């Protein structure tokens, strides 16, 4: 991290300030994304499925899609603003507790940490162009070929649905330790196959 780059704590504070009007919605959304209830994965998959089924059925144009997305974002922003103002209204009493504030800080810290990891991975990948040129071009060309193959073989809307659903479920899989379990299973399987091949030799 460079000397002028803000620290993690500074980034967390900045994110908390940006989410001030959205804080009443951040906590329940985060709870769903990390699967605090057993039915949360089904909810995420169901919402994604219904959305893409409607999109497939209505088959809107690109301009209509952009307009509807903007409309939904604007309505959500306005609704959250009203909810936040009502929750903090002095006559209604402050419903935001210290426990909620601590939870919001934890959410912001997780978001900032994830952003830092992704930024580091992207930076390291593009640094390979200078440090490991052959590996960089091999990975890039192979990935683009695979994507072009998938784009030609699989319906693009269905492929987008799979990607979006996976992204929605990813925080919960990470929180519940499923990614670590799958990684360990794959590594054990690869290690077992290597051991058996050496014994056969």
From TrEMBL:
Membrane topology: Multi-pass membrane protein
Pfam families in the record: RHD_RETREG1-3 (PF24456)
InterPro entries to which the protein is assigned, alphabetical: ER_autophagy_membrane_reg, RETREG1-3-like_RHD
Transmembrane portions of the chain: 39-58, 65-87, 136-169
GO cellular component: endoplasmic reticulum; membrane
UniProt KW Transmembrane keyword: yes
Primary location recorded for the protein, binned into one broad class: membrane
Keywords: Membrane, Transmembrane, Transmembrane helix
Subcellular location: Membrane
Domain RETREG1-3/ARL6IP-like N-terminal reticulon-homology stretches: 25-181
Superkingdom, taxonomy of origin: Eukaryota
PANTHER family: ADP-RIBOSYLATION FACTOR-LIKE PROTEIN 6-INTERACTING PROTEIN 1 (PTHR20952:SF0), ADP-RIBOSYLATION-LIKE FACTOR 6-INTERACTING PROTEIN (PTHR20952)
Protein name: ADP-ribosylation factor-like protein 6-interacting protein 1
Source organism: Thrips palmi (Melon thrips)
